[in-house]
Design goal:
The chain is α/β, with parallel strands linked by helices. It has helices at about 20-25, 40-45, 65-80, 95-105, 120-125, 160-165, 175-185, 215-220, 240-245, 250-260; strands spanning about 5-10, 30-35, 50-55, 80-85, 110-115, 140-145, 165-170, 195-200, 205-210, 230-235. The chain folds into 2 domains: about 5-115, Cobalt-precorrin-4 Transmethylase, domain 1 (3-Layer(aba) Sandwich); about 120-245, Methyltransferase, Cobalt-precorrin-4 Transmethylase, Domain 2, CATH 3.30.950.10. The strands form 2 sheets. It has a 5-stranded parallel β-sheet with strand order 3-2-4-1-5, sandwiched between helices.
Length: about 270
């Protein structure tokens, strides 16, 4: 019997935010090829006999080459293994899942994608920022903070983003805050537009800094914010102060919810 590859989204950080289907795939895999941002507690949900293979893939740090990852998936699948490619967030949202799917298709390896909760949605939500709101935002765009290395020209249409989209969510943005803010202001977004940046969203390491396009880079630097971080720009970011609900420390509400949670083994 031939092998199979599941491209599984692990979610934004909190192990409980993996989907039920993703958990089922992970708990039955022979081989798990995982990214650096996958939480250790999520990896612990793999079956004990599974082979775990680190694939790196963290911005600004040494990472496995994409060609090696593709070849590894193909090799194990052609050996008859059930392979889970475990990726932070969602495989098809700036996760290079499309490239891996293309490689698998070209090699004749059957595959599926199991969507995950992207940090593009989870980070704003955990910072108390609804990315759409009937009174403030009817459009949203997800933008990468780091484009493909070596690309001659940017594919980001700054004028369209600055003037045509209500809420802008930038992933992998922390190292490019000054550039992003400068481009948006230069292309017509007011300098006093609210902005929020969220580090390590949904985890105990979550930290949030609020400001405006004119101040967010300096405030993030002062706070020592580092990757991984998500930037939200738009009127909805103003709601952060009113709607922030997540406390990285255990709370009575979280304890209440955990006490009534359905055991993982019953899913």
């Amino acid at each position: 019997m031939g092998g199979f590859v599941a491209l599984v989204g692990a979610g934004p950080g909190d192990p409980e935010l993996i989907t039920v289907k993703g958990l089922r795939r992970l708990s039955s895999a022979d081989v798990v090829v995982y990214d650096a941002l996958v939480h250790p507690d999520t990896l612990a949900l793999a079956r004990p006999a599974a082979e775990l293979i680190a694939a790196g893939k963290r911005g600004g740090k040494p990472s496995a080459r994409q060609e090696w990852i593709n070849a590894t998936l193909i090799e194990h699948a052609k050996a008859g293994k059930f392979v889970v490619r475990l990726k932070g967030g969602d495989p098809f949202v700036f996760g290079r899942g499309g490239e891996e799917a293309e490689a698998l298709t070209a090699a004749g390896v059957p595959w599926e994608v199991v969507p995950g909760v992207s940090s593009a949605i989870a980070a704003p939500a955990y910072a108390g920022v609804p990315i759409t709101h009937r009174d403030a935002a009817s459009s949203v765009a997800f933008i990468t903070g780091h484009e493909k290395p070596g690309r001659a020209e940017s594919r980001v249409n700054w004028a369209a983003l600055a003037q045509g989209i209500d809420t802008l969510v930038f992933l992998m943005a922390v190292g490019r805050l000054e550039h992003i803010a400068a481009q948006l202001i230069a292309h017509g977004r007011p300098a006093d537009t609210p902005a929020v940046i969220v580090r390590s969203a949904t985890t105990s390491e979550q930290a949030t800094v609020a400001g405006t396009l004119a101040t967010i880079a300096e405030r993030a630097a002062t706070a020592g914010l580092s990757a991984p971080a998500t930037l939200v720009v738009g009127a909805v970011a103003r709601l952060h102060d009113e709607l922030r609900w997540f406390n990285a420390e255990p709370s009575a509400v979280l304890a209440w919810a955990s006490a009534r949670a359905v055991p993982v083994t019953s899913l």
